[in-house]
Amino acid sequence: MILVADSGSTKCDWVLADTDGKQLLTAQSEGINPMALSDKAIFSIIRENTDLQPYKSLITQIHFYGAGCGTVSADKKMKLILEEIFQNTNHISIKEDVIAAVHATTDQPGIICILGTGSNCSYFDGQECIQRIPSLGYVLSDEGSGNHIGKELLRAYFHHKMPARIKKDFEEQFDVDLNQVLQQLYHNQNPNKYLASFGKFIFKHKQEPFAQEILDNVIESFIETYLTHYHQELQKYPVHFVGSIAYYAQDIIIKKLKNRGYRASSFVRKPIDNLIKYIVLQNQNI
Length: 286
Known about the structure:
Elements: E1 2-7, E2 11-17, E3 23-30, H1 39-47, E4 61-66, H2 72-85, E5 91-96, H3 97-105, E6 110-115, E7 119-124, E8 129-130, H4 137-140, H5 146-158, H6 164-173, H7 178-187, H8 191-196, H9 199-204, H10 209-225, H11 231-234, E9 239-242, H12 244-248, H13 250-259, E10 264-268, H14 272-285
Parallel strand pairs: 1-4, 4-5, 6-9, 9-10
Antiparallel strand pairs: 1-2, 2-3, 6-7, 7-8
Helix pairs in contact: 1-2, 3-14
């Protein structure tokens, strides 16, 4: 059996499939980011996923794509953890989330963008990803992401710039006691996940000028920060987007790219289904 995981910092999608790609099980857990979580925390998340436990001894291949992967230390950490939990596996592949975005969207050259809890952008030349601007995480960067939207919403709320009707709904949906918010931001293990939890709220009010302005600004910030560094490639190749923020804001993204003469080719909310197809095809070609 093949186990595939696609993890952001907020959630991790798991799919168990047979060698023909038939999905036998889908599950979801908390997000697993080896750069942000301890070994103990990662062990707990995987072992507490009761859907996977009955199949542990039957899994022979694991393909883990995740935010925070892509460095030698992070990949080694994830591989050792997975080897200990799934002891009958004979192949474990650890790849960063941008590779998941590539495998889920194209096998041809293009610009690959991730807009989920965090954000990222790379040029895929058909063989490898070239990243001109590093992803600096939620503190220094992550323009256009869920946690960027969360920052803007909290700032608008506490600076009294949120319209009354939206403010009322915001207060009903979230605990916005200042002490509680600061506790989550500065003492929580995953402040980026906490910030991103506000992301869905903006789309609930997407037709409101207040929400439109925030979405317009964060998408513009993403384009200016990342996409403009791939100007030459953008003249020749399409742009692919992965992640829930990109998916639900695609009308704004398409319009902004069109105004610049660029072409948005695809929007994939959850890459996991496409990843299964890619892995099965690769296995067949071996």
